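Re: duplicated header lines in exported structure tokens

Our pipeline writes sequence and tokens for each protein into one text file. With two proteins the header for the second block appears twice in some exports. Here is an export where it did not happen, for reference. First protein block:
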Amino acid sequence: MAWIQIRIYADKADADALSDMLMDIGCPSVTFMDSKNNPVYEPKPGEVILWPETTVIGLFEANHDMQAVVDYLQSQHNKPLNYKLEQLEDKDWEREWMDNFHPIKFGERLWICPSWRDVPDPTAVNVLLDPGLAFGTGTHATTALCLKWLEQQDLSGKTVVDFGCGSGILGIAAIKLGAERVIGIDIDPQALIASRENAERNGVADQLEVYLPENQPEFSADIVVANILAQPLRELHEIILGFLGDEGAIAMSGILAEQAQSVADVYAPFIHLDDIAQEGEWTRVSGVKK
């Protein structure tokens, strides 16, 4: 199906109102986009933070009367409407999305391979991944930082906790790298489904257990990886450290460079910290339990 979109350039004070107007006239999809590459950091639960300069994008079927849309928005908006109409090419969007993912190598021996692509090196440690609706493809710097760290660890026979497991990418990689048992924990039931399906795809389902936080059993792990965000890493440090056995190793990411020291300071009393690793604007805090 062909589509047309209206891009409305606004500030954060007007963005919500414009979104509501679009929804009121039957717009099937409204999204927000940063107009000026201004970072937005950790929102509180249930909070939506918009950028100072926000683009509101409304998507309509190609035969929709867009002049009527513009006229309605202008009549309801108390400022001149700064907008642009764009015809979208009719594409197989699922195929377009899939074509953007390619196998990626981490360290000397680990490859993350989309399940629909050929494995580049059959002799390497290969993780076949379908992200589904859960986060984690290996392309983001935070995931890459954790994968590179895991690839450097001796995981043989170890128990690993993947806290905030998402697609299961870190836990499955740990198993492929030698871990005996992985416990994945996530607040999103969809993440648990994706992790199970990816574990089955990789033939390691019998070594991966997944739980919502309220259902997790008591256990002690040799390794903990947590690729979430700085704020929950700080706030949940007692829970996260509680998973880690004596002299266990931990790696945490989802941390912006300016947040890294604050996370390190929370864990320093309990962890012999490594140097903070950085990739772009993202960092990894890691170390061994004291």
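Second protein block, exported in the same file:
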Amino acid sequence: MRVHNFAAGPAALPIEVLERAQSELTDFNGLGMSVMEISHRSKNFVAVASESEALLRELLGVPEGYTVLFLQGGATGQFAAIPMNLTSPGATVDYVNTGSWSKKAIAEAKKYADVRVIADEKDSNYSTTPAAESLVLTEGAAYLHYTANETIGGVEFPYVPDSGDVPLVADFSSTIMSRPVDVSAFGLIYAGAQKNLGPSGITVVIVRDDLVGHARPETPSVLDYAAMAGADSMLNTPPTFGWYLLGLNLQWIRDNGGLPGMEQRNERKARTLYDAIDTLDFYSNPVEPASRSWMNVPFLLADDSLDKEFLAQAGAAGLTNLSGHRSVGGMRASIYNATSQESVDALVSFLKEFERTHA
């Protein structure tokens, strides 16, 4: 039996994608082999890669003048790759700190550049996003970086920062493909695949062409955007199975209304869950309403001594991966693209029943 999976990542994949992969697992394209067993240089896999890129460009509306890369190392690898590709030694870069992943990006960038944190939401315990008008960029900054969605804290920017002529860089790991976005507003978007794009092990980078080709000499080749672009993201052997699954997932998104379809689906799920948390007296969400994430919904029980019992009973009911991140505790339901309305409805029903029997 399939459970209701609320994992934060690696996250749920659409059942249609898993069943398609299962049907092709031992015989891909009539080759008598799995896609995992063929060369990444073969015409069959090159077609997988090319079709995946074309579909990603189509769905996101990536304009001309942008390079799309499929890399390894996760978003964490990009914390270093970005300053190594976009700055020279001694450069100044601006960062916004809205929680755990912002902090990690800032710590890594400090190894390569003078980091100015132009907004830090620590006074709210990282339950807010800064007001758009409060962001004042440092003169001469090489770029402005922000984390569009903090997976752990459940905080999401309700707007795209205006960086003027300064390249805007965004960690979109938990929001990419969840709704339409104007790619032209960004200098660089990066995202680990294991939320809305596919399985773990592959990372998408969408970078404006004028920002490519300036890597520091000491930059490892696998982190050098120009080197990877010149090799079609295959300077080394890529994660072929992950790339293939990413392509199948993009097809599923296309077949389910594209990004407007995902937006409608995700907005409804988030509204359903937040309405329940806000209405029921036994639960609370720590994030200011304007900054609540559509993708990651943390919540607290009125009596935290019941946390273990809550998780045990939820698991018995087929509601899995609801424990909050170890750094913050509580509960968290991640409701990415592949999580169905049925799963959210089942969680809401459980919340009501648990409150009835324990309040």
